[in-house]
Amino acid sequence: MTDALTAHHLTKRYGRRTALTDCTLEIPAGRVVGLVGPNGAGKSTLLQLACGLLDPTAGRIEVLGKRPVSGVKEVGFVAQDTPVYPGLTVAEHLRLGARLNPSWDRALADRRIDQVGLDPAQKAGKLSGGQRAQLALTVAAAKRPELLLLDEPVAALDPLARRTFLQGLMELTADQGISVIMSSHLVADLERVCDYLIVLVASEVRVAGDVDDLLASHHRLAGRRRDSTGLAVLEKSVAVIEESHTDVQSTLVVRSTAPIDDPSWQVDRLDLEDVVLAYLSGRPR
């Protein structure tokens, strides 16, 4: 199966400012991918390169096995500000989408508008933030894309609107079987909907993998104070991601391909947010 996205030494510069540097990754198809990282890590730039809105300065990117081209039916994109046309009604957005997209699924669009309770006669400029996000998602999904790119789609929404949006996203992915790449700072939301995670820091992929595998292989170790260079736990199967020390205790976040069998450590499992934070604040690779 062709990957949803591949990038090799991908770089994007704006004059002297570099937005993405030497980024290499492979994103499998058929997954709901969470893309997380701090501001300035290159998440938005990567997604705009993926949908053909930007051209790379150097390196190579392929989406569904091809060079990205803006506006193709195979890729749907919802930008960070969930853009809609304030002067157009909901119904006019759907009619415009139908004219611009030969693969437009009118039944899907009408069904989603009804499910999320949007008034077809309401102008988009009068909608709430959550309603605008639902409209933007509907327009992107009704193209029947193979890949849906979402750039911080719920960042400005209240908790109820976020939950409603994410429920709609899960229903769409279940019904259509599409690939999704969604950037977000809200790791709890990603944990609800994503089955694959990428942590991007300063354009470097710190970790990428199946969410269940990441949760199973990462642990927090707590024990007596010791220097990490002399830890018996540092075997080939164990990588230290983050460490902190007090006068009496050392605490490590590690990734291990084998069980941690050392009685001098208290071993605890991590949730996805713990894993993400460890890579954001831990050692560069």
Describe the fold and architecture:
By secondary structure, this protein is α/β, with parallel strands linked by helices. It is built from 8 helices and 13 strands. The protein has 2 domains: 5-202, P-loop containing nucleotide triphosphate hydrolases (Rossmann fold, 3-Layer(aba) Sandwich); 213-281, Alpha-Beta Plaits (2-Layer Sandwich), CATH 3.30.70. The protein has helices at residues 43-50, 90-100, 106-115, 129-141, 159-176, 187-193, 211-217, 272-281, and strands at 5-14, 17-27, 32-36, 58-63, 75-78, 147-151, 179-183, 196-201, 204-210, 218-224, 238-245, 249-256, 266-269. The strands form 3 sheets. It has a 6-stranded mixed β-sheet, with helices on both faces. A hairpin with a 3-residue loop joins strand 11 and strand 12 (249-256). The relative contact order is 0.14.
Give a brief outline of the structure.
GO terms for molecular function: ATP binding; ATP hydrolysis activity. The protein is α/β, with parallel strands linked by helices.
